[in-house]
Design goal:
The chain has eleven helices and ten strands. It is of the alpha/beta class. It has a six-stranded mixed beta sheet with strand order 6-7-8-3-9-10, with helices on both faces. A four-stranded antiparallel beta sheet has the order 2-1-4-5, with helices on one face. Bound molecules: adenosine-5'-diphosphate and magnesium ion (MG).
Amino acid sequence: MNAAALAAAALVVADDVHAHYGQSHILHGVSLAIARGESVGLLGRNGMGKTTLIRTMLGLHRASRGIVRVGGRDVTHERADRIARLGIGYVPEGRGIFPNLSVRENLLMAARPPRDHGREAWTLDRVLRTFPRLAERIDNGGAALSGGEQQMLAIGRALMLNPDIVVLDEATEGLAPLVVAEIWRIVASIRASGIASLIVDRNYRAVLAHTDRCVVLQKGRVVLEGGSRELRDDETLASHLGV
Ligand SMILES: Nc1ncnc2c1ncn2[C@@H]1O[C@H](COP(=O)(O)OP(=O)(O)O)[C@@H](O)[C@H]1O
Ligand SMILES: [Mg+2]
């Protein structure tokens, strides 16, 4: 497929996107396309613009230049809730669950019927089977959950939307190693089920292991991209990530 055909077929596309906070110019013309079923890692040191790019693609921050497309549709000026309904399950930094609602309420309020893509639908039952810890805590309030349980609830909520893509921004941040391993196991099963993903995580080796392709941001620009397998042997990657 040539670049134009790929962009047209892609699920989520950022095309030459710029973003500012006030006078500070944060994203300097970032282009990124994620195809159906594709798993993409977004790498870069702290403050390089990863979260800003995600928020801009999801309509939570306005691009100051460039175009965002979801499912072939120009959503650059669309409201975030409408963009989410096009099939994007977003797990933000800091999780974004509702602390005053129970686990059940958090999950049910996110539920959307599947759009027919031939995948088994995500239901409350299926989420609880995937995250047995949440089943045990089903009537607990979000605030009563451990950090790991809150993260699982945030991922469960994203799946209840029956998304075409899940976006995970630092999903393992601050969690104990056993819980982190559990999160990566879930990421692998989401990938195997054919749902696309965009993954940001400090552990770049884990990102390389769980994605098809990675894009590296430095000061709001793409400085390196390629197949995750090839990037494992790329000597410049470590210097871009400062590791
Ligand atoms: N709400 C905000 N207001 C002003 N500057 C911000 C805001 N959020 C992020 N920034 C700045 O934008 C840059 C990119 O941040 P961010 O997208 O969060 O990076 P990353 O996710 O890669 O760590 C950083 O310099 C950060 O300080
Ligand atoms: Mg971030």
